[in-house]
Amino acid sequence: MAETHNPLAQFEIKKLLDIDVAGYDISYTNSSMMLTFIVIAIVGLLFAGTRNISLIPSKIQAFVELIYEFIANMLSQNVGKEGLKYFPLICSIFLLILGCNLAGMIPYAFTVTSHIAVTFAFAFFMFIVVNIIGFARHGLHYLALFAPSGIPKAMLPIVSVIEIVSFLIRPFSLAIRLAAAMSAGHLVTKIFALFVISLGSISIFFGIFPVLFISALTALEILVCFIQAFIFSILICIYLNDAVNMH
Q1: I want to staple 174 with a disulfide (CB 3.0 to 4.6 A). Which of 68, 114, 123, 224 is the partner?
Q2: How many Cα neighbours within 13 Å face the side chain of 38?
Q3: How many domains are contained in the chain?
Q4: Which domain holds residue 92?
Q5: Furthest-apart CA pair in the chain: how many Å?
Q6: What whole-number distance in Å separates Cα of residue 83 and Cα of residue 81?
Q7: Which pLDDT score is estimated for 204?
Q8: Which tens digits make up the pLDDT trace of 149-193?
Q9: What is the distance between the alpha carbons of residues 113 and 11, in angstroms, rounded to a whole number?
Q10: Are strands 20-21 and 15-17 parallel, antiparallel or unpaired?
Q11: Which residue, among 114, 122, 131, 113, has the nearest Cα to 168 in the 3D structure?
Q12: DSSP class of residue 147?
């Protein structure tokens, strides 16, 4: 099967600049290039939206303000007023994941968040940061998360083990959920695109139905891009709430 017709070819990492440092391969790849473009685009968007702030906002300023209100409300509702000081953290991860998801919808572009290595890096970084915040605010009392109040002493060891295991799998569940959702959606879209080519070669009439389905599937996939970025961010807010408020 030709690479262009292989549904899995879109997930292949390709080296653009071969770099080896002390035996470690840190080559610049298509994934790295997409991340670079996405970060530049996000910085450019925020800069353009805040460069000339006016009482009557321009369209781009209104869009950036909408993003601000969305993230601020998410933090306020899930963490409280104390959570607003962590706005840059949540805003950064939300825009980065959303940017990676949406960029992958561009034809022939690489979907960075389809690789679990990338999503796990995002999730593990946020996991470490949230726990640093928890220990910085509460010290060793932060470990009380693993011993919920009101639990009978006889049940405490079992409950604590369950709490520890569920706590440690947080970055894995975040990473797997995001990578699976993005890779599955793109894979299905690619497969149906092949149907358009195959059926279209027979008759234009037969190719119409897959085209209509792909159009609906693409709209759904764009919605999934937003939903997955939202789910990732709101779960981080929930974990942040544990670190800040010890609930």
Answers
A1: 123
A2: 26
A3: 1
A4: 3-245
A5: 72
A6: 5
A7: 62
A8: 777 888 888 888 998 999 999 999 999 999 999 888 778 777 776
A9: 10
A10: unpaired
A11: 131
A12: S
Neighbours of 131 (CB within 10 A): 17
pLDDT of 89 reads: 93
Cβ(93)–Cβ(236) under 8 Å? yes
What pLDDT is stored for residue 176 in this prediction? Answer: 94
Q: How confident is the model at residue 6 (pLDDT cuts 50, 70, 90)?
A: low
Instruction: Kindly report which listed range (67-71, 99-103, 151-155) carries the lowest average pLDDT score.
Output: 151-155
Q: Specify whether the CB–CB gap between 171 and 124 falls below 8 A.
A: yes
Cα(12)–Cα(225) distance, integer angstroms: 20
Pairing assessment for the beta strands 20-21 and 24-25 based on DSSP bridges: antiparallel
CB-count exposure of residue 30 (10 Å: 0-12, 13-18, 19+): middle
Collapse the DSSP code of 115 into the 3-class scheme (helix H, G, I; strand E, B; otherwise coil) and give the result: coil
Decide: 238 and 127 in contact? Cβ < 8 Å: no
User: What six digits make up the tokens of 179?
Assistant: 């990578």
Over residues 195-215, the mean pLDDT reads 65
Q: In angstroms, rounded to a whole number, what is the distance separating the alpha carbons of residues 228 and 56?
A: 32
* Separation of alpha carbons 32 and 13, rounded Å: 10
Distance CA 190, CA 214 (A): 9
Q: Which of 97, 55, 68, 81 minimizes the C-alpha distance to 244?
A: 81
CA-closest candidate to residue 126, choices 100, 92, 163 = 92
Count of alpha carbons within 13 angstroms of residue 210, beta-carbon side: 19
